[in-house]
Specification:
With about 575 residues, the chain is of the alpha+beta class. The chain has four domains: about 160 residues, 2-Layer Sandwich (Beta-Lactamase); about 100 residues, 2-Layer Sandwich (Beta-Lactamase), CATH 3.30.450; about 80 residues, no CATH class; about 140 residues, 2-Layer Sandwich (Heat Shock Protein 90). It has 16 helices and 18 strands. It has a six-stranded antiparallel beta sheet, with helices on both faces. It has a five-stranded antiparallel beta sheet with strand order 10-9-13-12-11. It has a five-stranded mixed beta sheet with strand order 14-15-16-18-17. The longest helix is centred in the middle third of the chain and has 63 residues. The protein is rod-shaped. It starts with a strand and ends with a helix. The relative contact order is 0.05.
């Protein structure tokens, strides 16, 4: 006979928590394990008896309760575990149902063991097994009950089954402990996972903030580099050993080289030797915190000198020790050159003033001499003649006639001519009456009459109206001074004078083919208070009137003087 059984628990909970039995329903076929009932007697051989004893000894040694059940569920045989569990004697157990053996005082209709055994015994199946696991309240143990049908026997024979009841309390306790550990582990894993999630979120936030900070730092660095590289001043950073660790492009251009040619080199390579001792002393003071700006002369890559103003600041390490310095370097070469030019101009001005005073005294002396020797002598002669004539008239009134007075007239005419000559030397009246072009023509004729070995070529392409009134006197005096210098020093036979009106302004050029001179030598002599005032006077007149004065001369090749008055200056004049 075949039937189905099932494993189930009282409340559907996991094993080991006292929630009820678990039944496994599988096909079961009960079969006959003996061919005769236990009451039957039949001869057995010694070998079979020996095997039986070994089997019984082995079964008694098992920790499980092993019972042989008949078709009604009564115990046919059981091992001695029944005694160890306190369920009674082995012999007394025979004939009792397994429920009565294990639950001797149970009257509960819903007992799991009763229900399980009823299902198993009520529907036996050949070659099948049923199993139930439950916490037994009567025995205080967690039991694993299995009923097996061995699956052999003959038709018409009584069927038997084997029930194996195992105490799995320790296993269930271990499972419960394992489940508790598993829950604790899961709790800890959940908590740790939450912590890791929070840490990951914080880490991601920190990564985002760090990336943002790095991006901000990059933008700030780019703006700083743009500011540093585009500033008008040079910037130089040197380490504690005095080597240049960083320079911007402006500083490199000041030295006339690229930034890569400067980095790593000692700063002393770019300091002018004349300033090296002073610079080293200032570097020692800088190491002690001195930040006073100072001026320094740098030596460029090509040897050129660069005047610079240095504004230093020390760099300190975290311990406060000197770790280097940086400095803002401003190119003041133009200012220094302007100051030098101003000082030179002041020296020239003082020299010119002294020479002008001296020239004025000489001119006054010359005029006084001419008045005394020329006009004074003529006037004295006229006075003598007048006095002599008056004496004759007093002595011989009747004999007097016009002749004595006629002799005085030529002397008066000579006095008038002498006054005119002196006046023309001081300022030609023709300049105010006829203009600068006519004055230059007259002056050139007079000059050639005096210096007959010098030919003067005048090329006046400008019109009188093109030349402003203030420039007329300046042009005449410059030509006058230039021709006087030619007569004194040039040893030439030809002088060319060009006065032109162009779109750029008015240009005056005076050239000769004489012996020439060295302008540097003349400047050096003038710096020592030697030499004349001719060139200085011409330059001063040109520059004071808004013009640009230039002179070119080479020994043996002559001299060229060029003066240009710009159109704007011409209009202002």
């Amino acid at each position: 006979m075949e039937s189905m059984t099932e494993d189930r628990s009282h409340a559907g909970g996991p094993p080991g928590e006292g929630t009820g039995p678990t039944t496994t329903r599988t096909p079961v076929r009960l079969h006959e394990v003996w061919t005769a009932p236990p009451s039957c007697t039949f001869p057995v051989c010694n070998h079979v008896e020996h095997v039986k004893q070994e089997w019984e000894s082995t079964a008694d040694a098992l920790p499980q309760l092993v019972c042989l059940l008949d078709a009604a569920g009564a115990v046919v045989r059981c091992n001695r575990t029944v005694e160890r569990w306190g369920l009674g004697d082995v012999v007394e157990a025979q004939g009792r149902c397994l429920h009565a053996l294990m639950h001797p005082h149970c009257a509960a209709p819903g007992c799991y063991l009763r229900r399980f055994l009823d299902e198993v015994c009520g529907s036996t199946a050949h070659g099948a097994a049923a199993r139930c696991q439950a916490e037994d309240p009567a025995l205080g143990r967690y039991l694993d009950i299995q009923v097996h049908a061995p699956g052999h026997g003959g038709a018409g024979q009584e069927g038997y089954a084997v029930a194996v009841v195992a105490d799995i309390s320790e296993l269930k306790a271990a499972e419960a402990g394992l489940q508790a550990l598993t829950r604790e582990l899961e709790r800890r894993i959940t908590a740790r996972t939450a912590q890791l999630d929070a840490a990951n979120r914080q880490l991601r936030q920190e990564v985002v903030e760090r990336e943002q900070a790095q991006a901000d730092l990059g933008r700030s660095r780019d703006r700083y580099l743009q500011l540093v590289e585009t500033m008008n001043e040079g910037l130089a950073v040197q380490d504690r050993d005095g080597r240049l660790a960083y320079v911007n492009e402006r500083f490199a251009r000041m030295l006339g080289c690229g930034a890569g040619e400067v980095l790593g080199r000692p700063a002393t390579d770019f300091v002018d030797p004349d300033c090296l001792a002073d610079w080293q002393e200032r570097m020692a003071h800088r190491g002690r915190g001195d930040q006073t700006p100072y001026e320094l002369v740098l030596r460029g890559q090509g040897g050129e000198r660069v005047w610079a103003k240095v504004s230093p600041k020390a760099i300190l390490d975290p311990s406060g020790e000197y770790a280097g310095s940086f400095a803002v370097v401003t190119d003041i070469s133009e200012r220094v050159r302007a100051e030098q030019a101003l000082r030179a101009s002041e020296c020239e001005l003082r020299l010119l003033s002294a020479q002008v005073i001296s020239a004025q005294e000489k001119e006054r002396q010359r005029i006084a001499s001419e008045l005394h020797d020329g006009l004074g002598q003529i006037l004295s002669a006229i006075k003598f003649s007048v006095e002599n004539t008056l004496a004759q008239l007093r002595e011989h009134p009747a004999a007097a006639g016009p002749q004595p007075f006629q002799d005085i007239v030529p002397k008066l005419q000579g006095a008038i001519e002498e006054v005119r000559r002196i006046s023309m030397d001081l300022r030609p009246s023709i300049l105010d009456d006829l203009g600068v072009l006519a004055t230059l023509g007259w002056f050139c004729r007079e000059y050639q009459a005096v210096y007959q070995g010098i030919r003067v070529e005048l090329d006046a392409g400008a019109r009188e109206a093109d030349i402003p009134v203030p420039l007329k006197v300046v042009i005449f005096r410059i030509v006058q001074e230039a021709l006087n210098n030619v007569a004194k020093h040039a040893r030439t036979d030809t002088v060319r004078i060009g006065l032109q009106k162009t779109s750029r302004g008015i240009e005056l050029e005076i050239s000769d083919n004489g012996v020439g001179f060295d302008p540097a030598e003349i400047a050096a002599r003038r710096g020592h208070g030697l030499g004349g005032t001719g060139l200085v006077s011409m330059r001063e007149r040109a520059e004071c009137s808004g013009g640009r004065f230039a002179i070119a001369s080479t020994r043996g090749e002559g001299t060229v003087i060029r003066i240009h008055w710009p159109a704007s200056q011409e209009a202002d004049s």
